[in-house]
């Protein structure tokens, strides 16, 4: 462990990271060990140092067969730490790395510690390409580990040419700095700076930094305020209104502002908010959208006036008088960082003159090919100059995106008139002074695969800089805003000089990404005053109302201890809700009238408030307390006593509410006379119980509330049947069945009531619910004939939205199902809707409630018991399922191993990709046989389509003897023979048939196929035909099938079989980069390179002029040793067998002329960032 004092880390948590504790499959005790090693470079006495570095060396990395792996424990700041990795990714196709508190289980209750740290995978070939990410976290018992779930793509990690794995060893480093715990939330941005931040929705820091920058350009803010909106617009559906609302809140709010209204107006869903995008791309898309929205309004052209500049592309002939020019506009300028020391160097490079000469001469009209100069000059610059720094570039040699962390300086004042206007075109207006002052610095902290954005801004162009980091706004000095954002490397002072004499340098991953300059001559116009008069009246009223509501809620929250919320339920609420919004119990208390009253108010005074609200005089009111029963039902329990009604509300609440919440729930009983006028409540004795009644109609499948009755406890149900019939509107002698609704969690309990015994014997009491219905006759058929069946149906009823797996964002259809439906029931209903005869050909996939996407793994055949299990994702419940229709039954598919194989045939140039499905116990030989069949069947289908009518006629009865038909049949037969399809015919008196036998498209009938494992353009393995396919992994390796050349089958005693790979040198790293298709080659003893080159050229069919540029090298451990034509090649390759891919091979050095692909077959599975789209 190398001890050091790291610099302060400014960035917040990387938005690609996820606390491991949020993953149900998160860190568990390690299940297996691997051969690992760690290094400690300093004495144990230094473990108390607040900062340190730990290096973890993991051998045999690609052979690790564990889901997760912990490092040895190391100590920093007196605390025990360890690194946790998921070698194959934590449910993602990226390496997952976390810093873990090693002894969290043994720490005392309430522990916490704060650390700033970085995790890195070392590039052992070129250290500056090491993958590193930084963050900070307050560790505690709930979040004892923190890090990066998507640290780097597995395809990049396992690519041996990248340098992260050498000799199958991976090196991981952790730099940890333990700090005093910072109370992040106690900081009052408004109080400290006068400004407020923006809340992060998950991964929207890139948007927050851009919005703060645009907001602090007052001229832009004023234009947004003047965009026409109406009081009927909704912010979630109007980008102008949402932006106006956001800017208003930033200007007048006391706390940080949410951006959900704005992102909803963009048409984004939750998934979009958790997808990090590029701030430069968002800036362009948002500007284009606002420019479009401003058309036809008083602020039309504002975007152009602020941000639009023009440059001239020119080509000027040197020897003749000819010049071609083209004027183009820009809203921002992309400046090179690589190879440039500062902004001026980038501008010099931007206008650099290119010479068109030699083979690259310019074709000028009327003058033919001419030597010429080509370049760019600026016609005018905009008042607000946006400079996008090209921190991310595509590295063609490494075939990947990389971040440029080089030091790059930018001035506080930028003079674009320097050196007599060297950047300006002759047409430029020289009277305009292009002197700019720096307004904003947008910073990216992190790497190419993720990071964090924040901004340094001077809102008034004063000397005071502010850092806008999501919700937090802080004052910063100029050095922090400028110099510390230049990037490059920083040297740390040594805390223990005796142990390490060389200073430690580290790359600064936080650096400027976008710069905003304002022209000095325009700053008074741009930094203008914006006040309420610039805001539309309806917007001011709306937003002030929102602010008042917010303030009211804040005040209510602050005074909550002085008040009680009384929720009053009435018969009207029961009638309105039962059978529509609820079916069980009596009422949803959140939807009844509530009163906020002081606890000191006398209850009799509260009754007067009720009288005013409902028009029921105090003397006609009787209130009942609700009680939660042991079976989790909630029923009126007893009326308030006169003594209780004489007390204050606060005392009453404490009596009724053991949970001591600030709520009091009451049922208001009002008796109505024949004229529907209220009456004084009758005296309730111990012999009276209050029952509530629901009526069920099995024909309509409806349940409704019909009223309540006081019943004598010792009476029988038969005595009230007439009254119940009257309440239901039935004839007095209608036969009815009674059921008691007892409970509904976790299952329905609704039992028949015996009409022959008393209510007392049926154990009925105040607040109980009786459901009744007409007695069902034998000849009546209903789906749910009685109350218990209907209640069971309602409890488990579930509307499920089905989506095609190919269109995971779109609801295709909905089905009403039951949560108790088993797997087969669900499949039958889906198949019925899709008009499929075989439900087993449907496969369902669950919904991930967090990502709002399908889960990676589909549901296995009968892999879940019930629909409820299909809709449950950890502790969340969804109503979405994804379906796909298979070509074979799912049980059969699950018994098969699916492999993707790239088939290379000598007889054709194209590479065909085949999906092979075979039983898991099958062998490689079975795969090769299946391949032959697939190729033959596909060709036969193609051939048959041309001769379909003639073949059907030829094999039909009666026999046709048409000469033309016979001619066509023989033509078909000849083609079958020509393309190695053996045609076997059978002719008899009563039937005719033919049989096709495959010979594939091989070079000859006896040719054999073999299966290879290819990874990043190298051959790693030749599979034995007897090898089982069950353990073959084609997720990262490409499986390639090819014909075995005859010369390989008959190797002489002195012949050698060698690997031949294409490569190009990468000058920057002095490394080789393999590409193209690798192959085997037989070399004979005494054969020179010149002779072998003839065979290679013929095999690859390379033109002479191109082949002459190729170089040939003997490659050992990726180091080329170039060969001469007269060299005997067999002397280099002494072993006769096939060498390992990382050992020796013949290298063919030449340019890679093949077009770059986004991905190859089952390798290079890079995930590309979803483009920014604003839909509305």
Automatic annotation (TrEMBL):
<dbReference type="InterPro" id="IPR024729">
    <property type="entry name" value="USP7_ICP0-binding_dom"/>
</dbReference>
<dbReference type="GO" id="GO:0004843">
    <property type="term" value="F:cysteine-type deubiquitinase activity"/>
</dbReference>
<keyword id="KW-0378">Hydrolase</keyword>
<feature type="coiled-coil region">
    <location>
        <begin position="533"/>
        <end position="561"/>
    </location>
</feature>
<dbReference type="GO" id="GO:0005634">
    <property type="term" value="C:nucleus"/>
</dbReference>
<dbReference type="GO" id="GO:0005829">
    <property type="term" value="C:cytosol"/>
</dbReference>
<dbReference type="InterPro" id="IPR029346">
    <property type="entry name" value="USP_C"/>
</dbReference>
<dbReference type="InterPro" id="IPR002083">
    <property type="entry name" value="MATH/TRAF_dom"/>
</dbReference>
<feature type="domain" description="MATH">
    <location>
        <begin position="51"/>
        <end position="176"/>
    </location>
</feature>
<keyword id="KW-0175">Coiled coil</keyword>
<feature type="region of interest" description="Disordered">
    <location>
        <begin position="1"/>
        <end position="51"/>
    </location>
</feature>
<dbReference type="GO" id="GO:0016579">
    <property type="term" value="P:protein deubiquitination"/>
</dbReference>
<dbReference type="GO" id="GO:0010078">
    <property type="term" value="P:maintenance of root meristem identity"/>
</dbReference>
<dbReference type="InterPro" id="IPR050164">
    <property type="entry name" value="Peptidase_C19"/>
</dbReference>
<dbReference type="Pfam" id="PF00443">
    <property type="entry name" value="UCH"/>
</dbReference>
<dbReference type="InterPro" id="IPR028889">
    <property type="entry name" value="USP"/>
</dbReference>
<dbReference type="GO" id="GO:0009867">
    <property type="term" value="P:jasmonic acid mediated signaling pathway"/>
</dbReference>
<dbReference type="Pfam" id="PF14533">
    <property type="entry name" value="USP7_C2"/>
</dbReference>
<dbReference type="Pfam" id="PF22486">
    <property type="entry name" value="MATH_2"/>
</dbReference>
<keyword id="KW-0788">Thiol protease</keyword>
<dbReference type="Pfam" id="PF12436">
    <property type="entry name" value="USP7_ICP0_bdg"/>
</dbReference>
<dbReference type="InterPro" id="IPR008974">
    <property type="entry name" value="TRAF-like"/>
</dbReference>
<keyword id="KW-0833">Ubl conjugation pathway</keyword>
<feature type="domain" description="USP">
    <location>
        <begin position="196"/>
        <end position="520"/>
    </location>
</feature>
<dbReference type="GO" id="GO:0006508">
    <property type="term" value="P:proteolysis"/>
</dbReference>
<dbReference type="GO" id="GO:0031647">
    <property type="term" value="P:regulation of protein stability"/>
</dbReference>
<dbReference type="GO" id="GO:2000280">
    <property type="term" value="P:regulation of root development"/>
</dbReference>
<dbReference type="InterPro" id="IPR018200">
    <property type="entry name" value="USP_CS"/>
</dbReference>
<comment type="similarity">
    <text>Belongs to the peptidase C19 family.</text>
</comment>
<dbReference type="InterPro" id="IPR001394">
    <property type="entry name" value="Peptidase_C19_UCH"/>
</dbReference>
<dbReference type="InterPro" id="IPR038765">
    <property type="entry name" value="Papain-like_cys_pep_sf"/>
</dbReference>
<protein>
    <recommendedName>
        <fullName>ubiquitinyl hydrolase 1</fullName>
        <ecNumber>3.4.19.12</ecNumber>
    </recommendedName>
</protein>
<keyword id="KW-0645">Protease</keyword>
């Amino acid at each position: 462990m190398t001890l050091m004092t790291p610099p302060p880390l400014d960035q917040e948590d990387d938005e690609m990271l996820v606390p491991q504790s949020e993953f149900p499959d998160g860190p568990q005790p390690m299940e297996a060990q691997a051969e690992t090693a760690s290094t400690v470079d300093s004495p144990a006495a230094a473990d108390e140092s607040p900062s340190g570095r730990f290096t973890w060396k993991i051998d045999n990395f690609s052979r690790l067969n564990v889901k997760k792996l912990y490092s040895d424990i190391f100590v920093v700041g007196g605390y025990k730490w360890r690194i946790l990795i998921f070698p194959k990714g934590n449910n993602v196709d990226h390496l997952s790395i976390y810093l873990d508190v090693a002894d969290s289980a043994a720490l005392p209750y309430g522990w916490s510690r704060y650390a700033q740290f970085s995790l890195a995978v070392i590039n052992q070939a070129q250290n500056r390409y090491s993958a590193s990410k930084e963050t900070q976290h307050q560790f505690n018992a709930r979040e004892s580990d923190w890090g990066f779930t998507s640290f780097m793509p597995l395809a990049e990690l396992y690519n041996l040419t990248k340098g992260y794995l050498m000799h199958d060893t991976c090196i991981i480093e952790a730099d940890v700095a333990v700090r005093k715990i910072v109370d992040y939330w106690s900081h009052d941005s408004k109080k400290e700076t006068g400004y407020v931040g923006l809340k992060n929705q998950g991964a929207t820091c890139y948007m927050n930094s851009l919005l703060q920058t645009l907001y602090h350009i007052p001229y832009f803010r004023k234009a947004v305020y003047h965009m026409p909106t109406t009081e009927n617009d909704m912010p979630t559906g109007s980008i102008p209104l949402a932006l106006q609302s956001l800017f208003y809140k930033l200007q007048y709010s006391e706390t940080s502002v949410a951006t959900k209204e704005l992102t909803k107006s963009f048409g984004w869903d939750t998934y979009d908010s958790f997808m990090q995008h590029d701030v430069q791309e968002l800036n362009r898309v948002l500007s284009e959208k606002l420019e479009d929205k401003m058309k036809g309004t008083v602020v039309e052209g504002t975007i152009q006036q602020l941000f639009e500049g023009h440059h001239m592309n020119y080509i000027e002939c040197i020897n003749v008088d000819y010049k071609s020019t083209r004027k183009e506009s820009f809203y921002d300028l992309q400046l090179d960082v690589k190879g440039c020391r500062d902004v001026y160097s980038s501008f010099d490079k931007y206008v650099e003159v290119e010479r068109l000469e030699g083979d690259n001469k310019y074709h000028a009209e009327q003058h033919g090919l001419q030597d010429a100069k080509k370049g760019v000059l600026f016609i005018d610059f905009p008042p607000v100059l946006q400079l996008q720094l090209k921190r991310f570039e595509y590295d063609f040699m490494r075939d990947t995106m990389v971040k440029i962390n080089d030091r790059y300086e930018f001035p506080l004042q930028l003079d674009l008139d320097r050196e007599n206007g060297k950047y300006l075109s002759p047409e430029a207006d020289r009277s305009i002074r292009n002197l700019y002052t720096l307004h904003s610095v947008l910073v990216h902290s992190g790497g190419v695969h993720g990071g964090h954005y924040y901004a340094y801004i001077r809102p008034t162009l004063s000397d005071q800089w502010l850092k806008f980091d999501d919700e937090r706004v802080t004052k910063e000095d100029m050095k922090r805003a400028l110099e510390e954002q230049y990037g490059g490397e920083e040297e740390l002072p040594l805390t223990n000089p005796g142990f390490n004499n060389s200073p430690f340098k580290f790359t600064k991953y936080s650096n400027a990404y976008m710069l905003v300059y304002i022209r000095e001559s325009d700053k008074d116009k741009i930094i203008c005053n914006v006040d309420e008069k610039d805001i539309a009246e309806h917007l001011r009223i709306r937003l002030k109302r929102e602010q008042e509501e917010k303030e009211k809620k804040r005040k209510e929250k602050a005074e909550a201890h002085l008040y009680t919320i009384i929720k009053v339920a009435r018969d009207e609420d029961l009638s309105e809700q039962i059978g529509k919004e609820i079916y069980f119990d009596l009422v949803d208390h959140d939807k009844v009238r509530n009163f906020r009253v002081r606890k000191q108010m006398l209850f009799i005074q509260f009754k007067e408030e009720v009288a005013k609200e409902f028009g029921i005089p105090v003397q006609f009111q009787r209130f009942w307390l609700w009680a939660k029963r042991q079976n989790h039902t909630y029923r009126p329990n007893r009326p308030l006593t006169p003594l209780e009604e004489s007390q204050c509300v606060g005392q009453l609440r404490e009596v009724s509410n053991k949970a001591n919440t600030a709520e009091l729930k009451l049922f208001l009983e009002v008796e109505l006379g024949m004229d529907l006028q209220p009456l004084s409540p009758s005296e309730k004795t111990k012999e009276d119980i209050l029952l509530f009644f629901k009526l069920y109609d099995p024909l309509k499948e409806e349940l409704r509330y019909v009223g309540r009755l006081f019943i004598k406890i010792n009476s029988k149900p038969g005595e009230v049947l007439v009254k119940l019939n009257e309440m239901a509107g039935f004839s007095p002698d209608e036969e009815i069945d009674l059921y008691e609704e007892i409970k509904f969690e976790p299952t329905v309990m609704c039992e028949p009531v015996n009409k022959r015994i008393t209510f007392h014997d049926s154990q009925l009491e105040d607040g109980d619910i009786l459901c009744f219905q007409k007695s069902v006759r034998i000849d009546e058929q209903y789906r749910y004939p009685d109350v218990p069946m209907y209640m069971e149906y309602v409890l488990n009823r579930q509307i499920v939205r089905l989506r095609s797996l190919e269109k995971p964002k779109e609801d295709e259809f909905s089905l009403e199902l039951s949560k108790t439906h088993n797997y087969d029931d669900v499949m039958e209903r889906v198949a019925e809707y899709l008009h499929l005869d075989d439900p087993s050909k449907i496969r369902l996939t669950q919904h991930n409630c967090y990502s709002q996407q399908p889960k990676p793994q589909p549901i296995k055949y009968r892999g879940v018991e019930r629909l409820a299990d299909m809709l449950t994702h950890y502790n969340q419940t969804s109503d979405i399922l994804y379906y796909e229709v298979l070509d074979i039954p799912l049980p059969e598919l699950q018994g098969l191993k699916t492999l993707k194989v790239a088939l290379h045939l000598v007889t054709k140039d194209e590479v065909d990709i085949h999906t092979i499905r075979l039983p898991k116990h099958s062998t490689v030989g079975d795969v090769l046989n299946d391949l032959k069949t697939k190729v033959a069947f596909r060709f036969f289908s193609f051939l048959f389509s041309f001769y379909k009518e003639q073949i059907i006629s030829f094999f039909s009865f009666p026999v046709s003897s048409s000469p033309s038909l016979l001619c066509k049949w023989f033509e078909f037969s000849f083609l079958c023979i020509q393309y190695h399809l053996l045609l076997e015919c059978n002719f008899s008196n009563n039937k005719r048939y033919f049989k096709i036998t495959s010979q594939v498209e091989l070079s000859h009938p006896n040719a054999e196929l073999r299966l290879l494992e290819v990874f990043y353009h190298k051959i790693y393995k030749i599979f034995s035909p007897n090898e089982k396919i069950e353990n073959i992994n084609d997720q990262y390796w490409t499986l390639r099938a090819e014909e075995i050349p005859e010369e390989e089958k008959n190797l002489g005693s002195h012949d050698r079989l060698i690997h031949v790979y294409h490569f190009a040198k990468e000058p920057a790293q002095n490394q080789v980069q393999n590409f193209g298709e690798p192959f085997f080659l037989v070399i004979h003893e005494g054969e020179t390179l010149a002779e072998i080159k003839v065979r290679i050229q013929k095999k690859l069919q390379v033109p002479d002029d191109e082949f002459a540029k190729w170089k040939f090298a003997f490659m050992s451990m990726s180091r080329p040793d170039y060969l001469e034509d007269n060299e005997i090649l067999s002397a280099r390759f002494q072993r006769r067998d096939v060498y390992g891919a990382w050992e020796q091979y013949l290298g063919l050095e030449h340019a890679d002329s093949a077009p770059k692909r986004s991905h190859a077959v089952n390798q290079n599975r890079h995930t590309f960032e979803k483009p920014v789209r604003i839909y509305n």
